[in-house]
Design brief:
Chain lengths: 111, 114
């Protein structure tokens, strides 16, 4: 079993939809939780990171962490065609910055 | 401020050959991490260099090795290439090696092993 599980999709939604992306994990030592966006033929780009359980909002993006359920989510409001990309969740244990990634979910937002 | 750069962009090698990939870290960053991303998968941690010393290694065989230079640029070397080594190799730089520092990724080098 992988340490981080993520549905690979693809997920196809109309412009303006609310998108929900999720990851589950098994290692309770994970302390930092990140969401990266990766466009085709590019390196991953950090969207958001959180440390504790709860919600964190940044513009149209909301990251949610539930440590008791070992479950994290990324919500994208008012999705745009430019949001079409692969979204990777990533985690690190305390006192290290070695990133453990999920498989990535491919998102397509159509006009 | 210059971002993370990697060279070459693409590379084609045959089984058994050796390859060297290069990474220039972002200005002011002293930590470089290398990741392998197979098609349709998330990146997997290979190893990290902090101030020219290897500082952590993932589940990769010894034929994957690296170097970090005094200017904090880095090389990834892979010997005895296998077909399964075909992947996108990503370099990420950060400032200091501690509990959390944002890692900035380069565009990657796509390696094809025939």
């Amino acid at each position: 079993q992988k340490e981080v599980e993520q549905d690979p999709g693809p997920l196809s939604v109309p412009e303006g939809a609310i998108v929900s992306l999720n990851c589950t994990y098994s290692n309770s030592a994970f302390q930092y939780f990140m969401w990266y966006r990766q466009y085709s033929r590019k390196g991953p780009e950090l969207l958001m990171y959180t440390y504790s359980s709860g919600n964190k909002e940044d513009g149209r993006f909301t990251a949610q962490v539930d440590k008791s359920s070992k479950y994290i989510s990324l919500f994208i409001r008012d999705s745009q065609p430019s949001d079409s990309a692969t979204y990777l969740c990533a985690m690190t244990p305390y006192n290290t910055d070695k990133l453990i990634f999920g498989t990535g979910t491919r998102l397509q937002v159509f006009p | 401020e210059t971002g993370v750069t990697q060279s070459p962009t693409h590379l084609i090698k045959t089984r058994g050959q050796q390859v060297t990939l290069r990474c220039s870290s972002q200005s002011g960053h002293n930590t470089v991490s290398w990741y392998q991303q197979a098609l349709g998968q998330g990146p997997q941690f290979i190893f990290q260099y902090y101030r020219e010393e290897e500082n952590g290694r993932g589940n990769f065989p010894p034929r994957f090795s690296g170097l970090q230079f005094p200017n904090y640029s880095s090389e990834l070397n892979v010997n005895a290439l296998e077909l399964d080594d075909s992947a996108l190799y990503l370099c990420a730089s950060s400032f200091e090696q501690s509990s959390y520092n944002e890692q900035f990724f380069g565009p990657g080098t796509r390696l094809t092993v025939l």
